[in-house]
Specification:
Elements (H helix, E strand, L loop, with lengths): L1 H14 L10 H33 L6 H28 L4 H4 L6 H23 L1 H11 L3 H13 L2 H17 L6 H26 L6 H9 L6 H8 L2 H10 L4 H33 L14 H7 L5 H15 L1 H17 L2 H4 L4 H12 L6 H17 L24 H31 L3 H28 L8 H6 L3 H23 L3 H33 L3
């Protein structure tokens, strides 16, 4: 057991913190915590309001315990889906695997440590999804100390069952298939499937609970409909969810303690099965995982000459950044692909509703109404900067280099040009996202040509503003210590700052639009001039300070 704890500490230390632990970095930590709160608290608050309203309806029919079962089951489902990705990354594709294999360590030691690392990540998912439900239910039901104690114990054991199931599936798959050496393709396909599943589930729920004006009643009927309801479906996938829910609901009786013990027994048995399977399959599946498949291809003389033609240093570096962004699955999924998917996700709340036609017609009338003026353009601009804030390309441009970043110091390219080259891919992707969103809006909402032109013109300076701020943050707080590409983007808290910049900028612009009550053309000119000036100031400051920040990065 001591080896497992020691290995866990080593893995977490190698992964590195999301922010620097250097002296004087307290303000950075405070900003990161603030950004996390801004990003998470509104979602958790909405969940609290939803659960409180659902409780008021279900308590009248004596079905309020379904809230706990549904919450535990859906959280288990989310942990299972994310666990497939985490297990693949932590167990097989992290760079520390090759170092541990020659050591006098058993599969049990390595598996136990890696399981604990993945478990820590899953606790973050549980914290966001299930804790608001537990607390809201406790407050509404008047739960006592015993309820909250049982809730804490359920929270501790909750991720174990779905994570062990995900781990066993991945180990079986890696042992008896040849996908291990095609890891880039496997991770890309797996990520796309996870996104498709999440989007499909969201669209289904949105479709079933919209358009009738009585959404809450529909959800209540879905939950209490027995085998036909959502609760029956998800609890069949994770039967232990009922044990956890009944343990908390009947906390004042001995039966509650029995359900809690049974829930822990299931978790212990699941972990035991995971250890049993891992001891027999893990080493066989992880051997040779660093090898890759490749195809031999004859390069013709014309293609070779085209590939080695001279170009400006900054442009060559920007092309290199662009190719790496699209060829690395983790970067592609979290940076490039999001530029395509996020504008498409905006259609889900509209097209998945039964009354979507009426909503689109009303939105078109509002956006182009004379009484709105520049407010509609300000809302479009706000959507663009929020969209730019969700793209993590620029704000992870330095972090994605990892320890290889220090090779840049030996390249024959000035630091200023290198920074500009790293800024180009993120800016191009966010401009593409903006253009895609405008095309969607013009098609579904029937926007006027003047509105479309003004929106595109004012959107570009706003997008550049967010990207400039993003790369400045990453220069100040890069995450260069990571063992897999996934950590550089998914376990990097810097993108939260980009979201914060986008949200704050959008909010200020909308408030200013309501205060000024300007015309559409006046608002367009004001936004363009203001953010063009801000971009110029930030760009000059970045060229002046950026090389100094890069030079101070420790090797």
């Amino acid at each position: 057991m001591n080896k497992i704890w020691l290995l866990t500490k080593i893995m977490l230390k190698n992964a590195g913190p999301a922010w620097g632990a250097k002296k004087g970095s307290g303000w950075k930590i405070a900003l990161i915590l603030f950004a996390i709160a801004v990003g998470i608290l509104p979602m958790m608050a909405a969940l609290v309001v939803f659960v409180a309203g659902l409780y008021d309806g279900l308590v009248q029919v004596g079905q309020e315990s379904a809230i706990l079962g549904l919450g535990v089951a859906l959280t288990s489902l989310a942990i299972f889906i994310l666990g497939l990705v985490y297990v693949m990354t932590v167990f097989y594709y992290s760079q520390d695997v090759e170092h541990f294999l020659p050591m006098p360590l058993s599969a049990k030691d390595i598996l136990g440590a890696k399981f604990l690392v993945a478990l820590l990540y899953e606790y973050m998912t549980s914290l966001i999804m299930i804790v608001p439900i537990f607390i809201t239910f406790g407050v509404k039901s008047g739960g006592g100390v015993l309820y909250y104690l049982y809730a804490l114990l359920v929270f501790i054991a909750l991720p174990v069952i779905p994570l062990t199931l995900a781990s066993i599936i991945v180990m079986l798959f890696m042992r008896y298939t040849n996908f291990g050496k095609s890891k880039d393709r496997f991770r890309l396909i797996g990520g796309l499937l996870a996104i498709a599943l999440a989007v499909g589930f969201q669209a289904f729920i949105q479709r079933q609970t919209s358009g009738t004006g009585n959404n809450l009643e529909q959800i209540q009927q879905m939950i209490t409909a027995g085998d036909q309801g959502l609760l029956g479906i998800v609890t069949q996938l994770f039967p232990a969810s009922n044990l956890a829910a009944l343990a908390m609901f009947e906390n004042s009786a001995w039966s509650g303690l029995g359900y809690l013990v049974a829930f822990y027994v299931v978790a212990v048995v699941g972990f035991g099965l995971f250890t049993f399977v891992g001891n027999r399959l893990y080493f066989a599946g992880v051997m040779g995982i660093s090898e890759s498949k490749s195809k031999r291809k004859r390069v013709e003389e014309s293609a070779f000459q085209k590939g080695v033609k001279a170009r400006p240093a900054w442009l060559a570096y920007a092309v290199k950044e662009w190719k790496i962004l699209w060829r690395t699955p983790a970067f592609f999924m979290n940076c490039a692909l999001s530029s395509i998917f996020f504008p498409l996700f905006a259609l889900i709340p509209l097209l998945s509703r039964r009354d979507s036609a009426e909503m689109l017609a009303g939105l078109s009338d509002w956006l182009q109404g004379e009484q709105v003026g520049g407010i509609s353009l300000a809302f479009a601009f706000a959507a663009f900067v929020v969209l730019a804030g969700t793209n993590s390309t620029s704000i992870t441009a330095i972090s994605r280099e990892g320890q290889g970043f220090f090779l840049n110091k030996s390249l024959p390219i000035p630091y200023g040009q290198l920074i500009v080259a790293k800024l180009i891919p993120g800016t191009i992707l966010t401009v593409f996202s903006m253009a895609l969103l405008v095309v969607e809006a013009a098609w579904f909402i029937k926007l006027s040509p003047l509105f479309v032109i003004l929106a595109l013109v004012v959107g570009i300076p706003g997008i550049l503003f967010i990207n400039l701020l993003g790369i400045m943050v990453d220069l100040q707080m890069p995450k260069l210590s990571w063992s897999s590409e996934q950590e550089a983007v998914k376990q990097n808290l810097n993108p939260l700052f980009s979201m914060l910049f986008g949200a704050v900028t959008a909010g200020i612009c909308i408030l200013a639009a309501f205060s000024l009550d300007s015309s559409m053309i006046g608002m367009g000119l004001s936004l363009f001039i203001l953010f063009a000036l801000l971009d110029y100031v930030l760009y000059r400051y970045l060229l002046k300070k950026g090389p100094i920040w890069m030079g101070k990065m420790d090797s």
